[in-house]
């Protein structure tokens, strides 16, 4: 029974790969150079980049993977490929015989978007900091202290910062849900 299950999984994987390859080919064929696009295909996202010289690449990812990072990966891979493989050879290359050594390195590096892309890492750090600050402010307010009182008592804030806080507070008052 185990060999049958293994065979079934291999067949399913082969079918998925075949479908993704087919979808990628269609997307590239129907894209007008130069173009970048991201297309949702069931549980996948297909990120397509066709350069002005018609060299193209597709990254297939889940919906969580940042589109900007996928396109950065495509740009780097295609630039590297174009620098190593002469353009006159592109039309005659076969997938089975084409060896591009750098691809595995790029794929490994871009598995975790925050490690591969500085802007994504900064955004993740900002999101984490925002959560921490929000929790800290909530904890302070739960102890019965009011933010207005803390701002008024603070010696660390300049008069300009205090004025900014008061103005922002007044501006946001109209946004309260009653």
Automatic annotation (TrEMBL):
Vesicular soluble NSF attachment protein receptor (v-SNARE) mediating vesicle docking and fusion to a specific acceptor cellular compartment. Functions in endoplasmic reticulum to Golgi transport; as part of a SNARE complex composed of GOSR1, GOSR2 and STX5. Functions in early/recycling endosome to TGN transport; as part of a SNARE complex composed of BET1L, GOSR1 and STX5. Has a S-palmitoyl transferase activity. SMART domains: Longin. Residues 118-178 form the V-SNARE coiled-coil homology domain. The keyword Acetylation does not apply. This is Putative snare protein ykt6 synaptobrevin/vamp syperfamily. Belongs to the synaptobrevin family. PROSITE patterns: LONGIN (PS50859), V_SNARE (PS50892). GO terms for cellular component: cytoplasmic vesicle membrane; Golgi membrane; plasma membrane. GO terms for biological process: vesicle-mediated transport. Its main location: membrane. It comes from Ixodes scapularis. It is a lipid-anchor. It is found in: Cell membrane; Cytoplasmic vesicle membrane; Golgi apparatus membrane; Golgi apparatus, trans-Golgi network membrane. Keywords: Cell membrane, Coiled coil, Lipoprotein, Membrane, Methylation, Palmitate, Prenylation. The keyword Cytoplasm does not apply. Pfam families: Longin, Synaptobrevin. Residues 1-107 form the Longin domain.
């Amino acid at each position: 029974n185990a060999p049958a299950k293994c065979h079934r999984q291999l067949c399913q994987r082969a079918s998925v790969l075949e479908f993704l390859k087919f979808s990628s080919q269609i997307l590239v064929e129907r894209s007008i150079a130069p173009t970048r696009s991201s297309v949702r295909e069931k549980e996948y996202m297909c990120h397509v980049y066709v350069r002005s010289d018609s060299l193209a690449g597709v990254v297939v990812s889940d919906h969580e993977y940042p589109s900007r990072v996928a396109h950065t990966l495509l740009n780097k891979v295609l630039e590297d490929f174009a620098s190593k493989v002469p353009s006159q050879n592109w039309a005659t290359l076969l997938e089975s015989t084409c060896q591009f050594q750098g691809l595995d390195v790029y794929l490994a590096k871009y598995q975790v978007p925050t490690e591969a892309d500085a802007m994504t890492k900064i955004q993740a750090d900002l999101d984490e900091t925002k959560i921490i600050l929000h929790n800290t402010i909530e904890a302070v307010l739960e102890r019965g202290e009011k933010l207005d009182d803390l701002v008024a008592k603070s010696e660390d804030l300049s008069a300009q910062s205090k004025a900014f806080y008061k103005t922002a507070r007044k501006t946001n008052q109209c946004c309260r849900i009653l």
